[in-house]
Amino acid sequence: MATSIRELDALERLHADFSFTYDALASALQTPASTVHRWRSGHGGAPTPVYLHRLAAFGTFLEELDMLMTRDGAVAWLDTPLPYLKGHTPRATILAGHVDRVTGILMAMNAGMPL
Fold it and tell me: How far apart are CA 25 and CA 13, in angstroms?
């Protein structure tokens, strides 16, 4: 990765550790895949504040996930349908653009709230 934008670290980790594709993550960010590839390569400018905020939400999600689960446990959990996501998986919810919902669940779990 040619650029050193900290918020892109979460994108790289979601891809490397949890097999999210860059194209799917771009869709979740509501931006074209070509834009994500430009950010990653350092060509064509940095993300605007709107996208930096969305990328930071991925980072917050990963912080909450790391407090609760091992990587292997997280991989399995991401693909488990959850009743509090109306039977959808955390992965599908994130890719639908709702990382905040999944992060909220993790925050509740980290706080010891029964779900």
Answer: 11
Q: How far apart are CA 36 and CA 69, in angstroms?
A: 28
Tokens of 56: 């930071």
How high is the mean pLDDT of the chain? 92
Rounded Cα distance between 71 and 24, Å, is: 20
Q: What are the pLDDT digits (tens) for 38-80?
A: 999 888 788 999 999 999 999 999 999 999 999 999 999 999 9
* CB neighbour list of residue 101: distance below 8 Å, 6 or more residues apart: 85, 93
Where are the chain's structural domains?
A: 8-110
- The structure tokens 């653009």 sit at 97
